[in-house]
Known about the structure:
By secondary structure, this protein is an all-beta fold. The chain has no helices and eleven strands. It is globular, with a radius of gyration of 13 Å.
Amino acid sequence: QLQLVESGGGLVQPGGSLRLSCAASGFSLDDYAIGWFRQAPGKEREGVSCISNRNENVFYGDSGKGRFTISINKAKNTVYLQMNNLKPEDTAVYYCSAGLADDECRESPYDYWGQGTQVTVSS
């Protein structure tokens, strides 16, 4: 059974950093595209960063360009999202997702979702 479990969220001050983790089980990260998405209260879910099958391509949404970095530890079958210089507008529930392909971090190819982890940026 394919499972994704996020961790690493929390409360951080503006300008701070967090690293989110997504532990995958039941499948190999080489075989799926992996994405980080987020949803803020009252807003639609948006793609933050996605990496295609076999890590061939990486996409960043405008919100995280230059501040966020996606990476994979294949030995641990875990995906990370390093977030630096966090802003209050980054406050959201962050989700990890897996799909058979990536389409510039659009939601539609992604079929499997974790439960989400809350990130709150506030002083």
